[in-house]
Design a protein that fits this description.
With about 180 residues, the protein is of the alpha+beta class. The strands form 4 sheets. A two-stranded antiparallel ribbon has the order 1-2. A two-stranded antiparallel ribbon has the order 3-4. It has a two-stranded antiparallel sheet with strand order 5-6. Helix 3 packs antiparallel against helix 7, helix 5 packs antiparallel against helix 6 and helix 6 crosses helix 7. It is globular, with a radius of gyration of 16 Å. The termini are far apart. The mean pLDDT is about 85.
């Protein structure tokens, strides 16, 4: 069983099945943390009067026109195969195809945000990646989304260091 993971913002409900919570697989953990990020976004607004979504939109490049969200992107190839792409092969939570876009840790983040007309999908993915797969923020020894990484470090995970991109580059997109 692959399990279920969903956040219902209208009710502030986070539904995560046992299969996701107890899974040792990295992809399931990313899905879990992605949905938890939606819940944390709501909690930040309700309890701390911090609008993470509005803050994220200010620096991430997303613009709304005629009711549709869009952002300028540049495709730079595909992410190299890693554990997430391997686990995606047979998963309903697949990240494939894993296109690499400047400023995005998962190609699917951009595509799902456009399809759902909701940049909060990209924000939740970036939060999950920062915590679980920080190497996704690195390419050619540099942060691919420095404003996002800095914001997540400051607002969401202040005790977790920003991704270290000085290590030998294992996440350089291939063309």
């Amino acid at each position: 069983d692959v399990g279920v993971a969903a956040f219902v913002p209208e009710f502030g409900v986070l539904a995560i099945s046992r299969e996701i919570v107890e899974s040792p697989h990295l992809l399931a953990q990313v899905v879990f943390l992605h949905e938890l990020a939606h819940s944390a976004t709501r909690a930040a607004l309700l309890f701390h009067h911090k609008d993470w979504r509005a803050e994220f939109l200010k620096f991430s490049g997303w613009k709304k026109k005629d009711g549709k969200w869009s952002v300028t992107v540049k495709e730079i190839g595909t992410h190299p195969a890693d554990e997430l792409t391997r686990l995606s092969q047979e998963s309903s939570f697949s990240l494939l195809p894993d296109k690499a876009y400047v400023g995005f840790v998962f190609g699917k983040s951009y595509e799902q945000s456009v399809a759902r007309n909701d940049p909060a999908e990209e924000m939740a993915d970036a939060i999950a990646a920062f915590r679980l797969t920080p190497e996704r923020f690195c390419s050619h020894g540099k942060l691919v989304a420095p404003k996002k990484a800095n914001w997540i470090h400051k607002e969401v995970f202040p005790k977790i260091p920003s991704p270290d991109c000085s290590k030998p580059d294992q996440n350089t997109p291939s063309k």
